[in-house]
What does this fold into?
Amino acid sequence: MTNDTVAPAIESVGLTKVYADLPALHPLDLTVEAGQSVALIGHNGSGKSTFLRMVAGLLEPTGGDVSVAGWPVGEVPARATTSFLPDDPVLYDDLSVREHVEYISRLHGGNGFDGYAEDIAERFKIDDRLDDLPARFSRGLRQKTSLLLGIARPFSLLLVDEPFVGLDAPGKNTLLDLLDEVHADGAAVVVATHDPEFVERVDRSVALRDGEKVFDGQASVSEVLALVST
Amino acid sequence: MALADPTIDALVEMRRARRRKRIADIHWVDAMYQVYITAILGIVALVFISGAAGGTPLDAHGIADLTDRGPAVLGLLPAFALMAGLRSGSRGGPLALEQPDVRHVLMSAVPRSYALRGPVFRQLRSFVFLGIAVGGAAGLFARHRLDANVAALIACGAGFGLASVLLGAGAALVAAGQRIPRWLATLVGLVVTAWSVADVADAAPTAPMSFLGKMPLWPLQFDAWAIVPAVVGVLLAVWGLMGISGLSIEHAERRTKLVGQLRFAVTLQDLRTVLVLRRQLAQELPREEPWFGGGAYRRPPKRLVFSRGIRSIMRFPASRLVRLVILAVIAGFAARGTWDGTLPLVALAGLAMWVAGLDAIEPLAQETDHPTRSEGFPVDIGELLVRHLAAPALVMFGVALIAGVVIVLGEPNLDSLRLAGIAIVPLAMLGVAGAVVSALMGAPSANDEISAMLPPEFAGIKNVARAAWPPVISVLGALPFLAAFAASDAGQSPWSAAGAAAAGAVVVAILVGVWVRYREDLHDWWAASMDEAKQQRSAKDAQKAARAGSAASRPKAKADRSRPAPVDEADEDWDEDEDEEEWDDDEYEDEDDQDWDDDAEVEPDEEDADLDEDDGEWEEEEDADDDEWEQDDDDDSDDDGEWDAREDDEDDEDENAR
It folds into this structure.
């Protein structure tokens, strides 16, 4: 087994997903190096979320292989390494935000609700809601809670699906800053988004169309808009 | 106890904290009272039914026949359980986890074998309780016909129930944990079941499940071989438990969403939604191509509604057809058992036909799922629904025919043939009738006129009666067997008694048809009557208030010296009436809103959601405000799911129809 400091953050070979007889992702070869930041772009149904969910281990590939830090997806080291922030926040109804962070961070080998978590909560301006139940939160607050959970735990690969949807402008800026920070700390970051503001900040953009890779490299905003609109 | 792995430690602490919160939220006195009432009512009902549902004890010939053929027949139950378990497990069942548990616990660094141990234990515990309870109750019922120790009958019945559920649940856990492909799970299940069916027909003795079928008959004849399948069941459960960490997360997440909606639908007693969600859970989709006559469906049909129904039925998936056949076989065995003197089986025969009916009425149910669409057709809704009855009736005649064949094969002679011939029509018609009533009644509402008139104490009884009477209608279809047995037992002609019961059942079916046709008219008439009564009452109140006002104004001059109030009091009464009127209006507005909501609550199905990843982006951005009204949206999301489920099914049907 490879060491996670040298192995690519993500390595997919011929990764395929077919729903019934409808292909969602054609065989995809993609390697994301450790510490790299990548924007995954593409129009609706292009296969971005499907790819992220397969890397996170939530979906099973129909074909091909995918590994995280050299470990097959789904194995304990891969799970401990990967933090996935979905576009649909999923939270317990009976745990407060603080309890969520405390337990979920520790489930991944973290320190629980520590100073870092408190700092992120302050930056998202949810520090006064830490003892509330997220069941009563708005979509935006739930999204912020989900981001807090995903970032406050230990990881070396951060997968984020449409993170800016549902966020207000200050929340979006905070998230952009946080993504820069975790990237600077050495984590690989893969974000599925159309937001040009984020695309400008990343090392690399990968565009998918109808489940196939159509672009891989450093894209300008105009290129991104062209890729998404066609 | 601190555990070595800190992640496991965290999981233990989290579950403990959640349990503490749940326990803190329980109102213990209420909970104890509910348990007490349920236990008392359950025991009383069981004892009463087992006492009332008698039957004559079997003679020596009957006992010999039972010990000879009974094990194979009883062995069908664990065979079906095994097949159902294998198929469910191949789709990720029987576990139904919480969605946050899938996302946060199963995706964490905690070993899945540890994380899943608790949920698996709880699920197994429920199955075990169910198996023991049902098996024990069956043993209690059997005491009327078997000259054996009652405690032994109950214990052996409970053991049989326990072993059956362990086989089913164990097979499901093994299939889920070992990722057995669906085709293989179905194949193994079919082989075991077919072997048992063949054993019943004396075509292939020594079916493995027939050995287990000997267990409930131990009080009559002990055979230690019955232990073997029971031990296999225990081993399967242990193997399943050990290997559950191999569970597919994709399946687990799909199930967790559907099971959440399913539980919500069950709490609402919305049978139709439960049925649709269960089909989605089982991934039971209509066929792309109809079984027969694909080309014919591309031509314009002559009888539109009937043709629509046939198209729907011709796209029934194989699993639904197999289920209909199994239900027909169960109905046939139960009817045969009733005719042979095991009277409680009449309920099983009727229930099997009712459940089959729920599948058969799919074309009609599609109309009721989408009332706004149906109301847009240029035909009276009652007439439309009556036209929809023809295709399901055709299916149910097929089901009843299979049941009839089973009845005749039970003891092939002219008497069996005559009885089956008499009973097929009522079985089919009331199977459809009960299912149609279930579908058209929909989920109960706390705001209907009848509930408003009843004292709150009767609301529970009303709901129980409401849920019970559709299956009761179907059970009426099996009464000819009961009548035939009773007449035969009394030394009278069984045929005339069965014929009379069949005629009565057909009348009931016709009455249900009339109800379907004029149901909307009756509702309209009732609503108009209630409105008229309210208006009359308001007018009377207004007159009364006016009279009180004028009467009060006369002594006012005199009364003014002592007290100034009478006119105000009258005005206040009037105001109160006005308030009441306003409140009523609000109520109607709410109902209108509800209708509107129902129409609006349509979302793309789950797979579409996966594929159309960016759909709804703009809507979500608009909803980005941080106020807490989202709580309402969250609540609605369950409703969304409910309609979502129905839409999915309809979409499938429509797509295929196109």
Summary: Residues 494-553 of chain B form the longest helix (60 residues). Residues 151 and 231 of chain B are 22 Å apart (CA to CA).
